[in-house]
Amino acid sequence: MGSQYTNNLSQLKNLGLPAITNLAELASQMRLSVGLVQTLVFKSNEHYRVYFLDKKSGGEREIAQPSRAMKAAQSWILRKILYRLNSSQNSKGFEIGESILSNAAPHIGAHILLNIDLEDFFHSVPASHVYSIFHSIGYNKLISQKLTSLCIFKGRLPQGAPTSPKLSNLACQRLDSRIQGYAGSKGIMYTRYADDITLSAFNESKIRKAKPMIEKIVLDEGFSINHKKTKLCGTRKRKEVTGLIVSANGVGIGREEYRKMRAEIYTMLQSDPSKLAHINGWLAYIKSVDTTNYARLIKYIRTLKKIFPDSEVFNLIPAIKKN
Description:
Blueprint: H1 2-14, H2 23-30, H3 34-42, E1 48-54, E2 60-66, H4 68-80, H5 100-104, E3 112-119, H6 127-136, H7 141-151, H8 164-171, H9 173-184, E4 189-193, E5 196-201, H10 204-220, E6 224-225, E7 231-233, E8 239-241, E9 244-246, E10 251-252, H11 254-270, H12 276-289, H13 291-307
Antiparallel strand pairs: 1-2, 3-5, 3-6, 3-7, 4-5, 8-9, 9-10
Helix pairs in contact: 2-3, 6-7, 9-10, 11-13, 12-13
């Protein structure tokens, strides 16, 4: 037992993780009282406010918002433990240095694209998986149980907790490994952005033949598929990955979105200045994912500035404010 204890502490140290062996040490590291941490652990379900949001596809999405104290504990776990653990290379969502752009880019030039949506994603990760994550990195049973209790709500990952996105990625490591192992050997590219799985290839038959096995792996790993959102896009169809359009030689917002933005900018300047905040937000987003179309839109706005020289709105668009 002494040897195992030493090995666990050594493993935690090698990973750069806090060496915690009991509740008092955990509370001290979190800078919370032992009594408060005990309450958060043993009465965790009482520290959430639950509400529901309508889904675009119909139905409701449960949001469990942690209390201020619970969120403080979870934020510590995220910063000091979870962010120091590596997710799979296929995981592009909720990861430092990754984005919807890095999720879409590997699929540039593909002739066929398969999108699979994982249904009720966070809620599909049970407490047992979360416990396994903490225990596998070196925490003893007691601390693994405490950390798990601080991260789950009613036995599963809550949508609304800051720890859930990263934990969901860590819980998907075997899923990612199995899909990558199967798809990669067949020349199929695989990425996952949270609950959004994307596979692509140059050969349509490869994807069609692989689809049943990919779906079987997903089900084997305890996840469900939202078949209504499954999409298979061939050569002539528009290929969309996490909201971005993938073409033969690049990735961006696409012509349709670009034209829509031009029209909204013109409407704002001509008759509806209330759109300003919306447009500024979209310009910032487009700048981060599509520099070519961002430059085109800025050029268009500067052209409109000559048409509407007296408009004060231009002074409220950060992208051109200095010009």
